[in-house]
Each structure stands twice: as structure tokens, then as C-alpha cells.
Design brief:
Elements (H helix, E strand, L loop, with lengths): L1 E10 L3 H12 L5 E4 L3 E2 L4 E4 L12 E11 L5 E10 L5 E8 L2 H17 L9 E8 L5 E12 L4
């Protein structure tokens, strides 16, 4: 299984439109996103790669781990990130964090994953992550990182 971590930033006149703009920038705006917990299945390959919109999948369900942060106050920043660790079989863990600065989000990701590895028997590799941020100017902004697992239609 390939999991391509995608990311986007956006702005709009409302918080919801800023979120949708970030989804669009990440290439996943036309899906119904179903949030997953953060366990990576065996044999998974995780890579950072911006998604391309798939018009044939418009309206499909998209199973994904998602991190997003909206900011409405001028001069403040919105940061979102996903971090992950994997063992040699590909199984692993994602964590999703949000905050007001890059360093805050990176610290939360590292702290969470280091703690989570302590009570599991797997021998995980080093922490990897993808983060994005955007500064609010005069309207709401959103930073978003998404790890889509798979999409699925609704049937006939």
C-alpha cells in the first residue's frame, strides 16, 4: 500500500472556505473525507507527494489521517503537520498536530511519537514528518496535511 502525504494552504472569506481552499491546494477537495486513527498497516510505503485532483473520483469517500489548523487573527500563523514512524515491515504510526508555529508543531510530533514508541514492541525507525504553515493577513487561513489511504465510490 502506498500512502502519499499531501499538503495545502488556503484562505477565504470564511473559516470553512479557507479549509476548502487548503483541501483544494492539497488535491483532495472533491472527496468526502473520513478521518482515520493513526495506525499504518504492514507493507505500507509512506512518501510526501502532492495529490493531483481525480475528477473520476468526485464525491468518493477518502479514508485519511488529517491535520488542519485555521487562523483568523491577523499576523498569527496556522501550522499543521503529520509525523510518522515505521518498522522494517512498513507498519507504523501517524500523529497529527496543529499549532501557531513550525517549532511548536514539530515538537508536538516528536514528543508524541517518542512516547508512543515506548509502549509498543515494534522497533521503529526515525521520526519523519511533513508540516505546512500560512500567516493570516486580513481573512481566515488554513494549513492542512493529509495522508490518504484509499478512496472508494458509493456503488450503484
Amino acid at each position: 500500500m502506498n500512502i502519499s502525504v499531501t499538503y495545502g494552504i488556503g484562505s477565504g472569506p470564511t473559516e470553512l472556505s479557507a479549509f476548502d481552499s487548503a483541501l483544494n491546494d492539497a488535491g483532495v477537495a472533491n472527496y468526502n473525507i473520513l478521518h482515520l486513527s493513526s495506525v499504518i498497516p504492514p507493507e505500507a510505503v509512506v512518501e510526501v507527494k502532492k495529490a493531483e485532483p481525480q475528477s473520476a473520483e468526485y464525491g468518493h469517500r477518502l479514508y485519511a489521517v488529517l491535520s488542519s489548523r485555521i487562523e483568523t487573527e491577523p499576523e498569527k500563523e496556522a501550522w499543521a503537520g503529520l509525523g510518522w514512524i515505521q518498522d522494517k515491515t512498513g507498519r507504523g504510526l501517524f500523529v497529527e498536530h496543529q499549532g501557531g508555529s513550525e517549532s511548536e508543531v514539530e515538537g508536538l510530533i516528536r514528543d508524541s511519537l517518542e512516547n508512543m514508541r515506548q509502549y509498543r514492541k515494534n522497533e521503529y525507525g526515525e521520526v519523519q514528518f511533513k508540516m505546512v504553515g500560512i500567516k493570516c493577513k486580513d481573512r481566515p487561513v488554513c494549513a492542512l496535511v493529509c495522508a490518504p489511504y484509499m478512496s472508494e465510490g458509493w456503488g450503484k
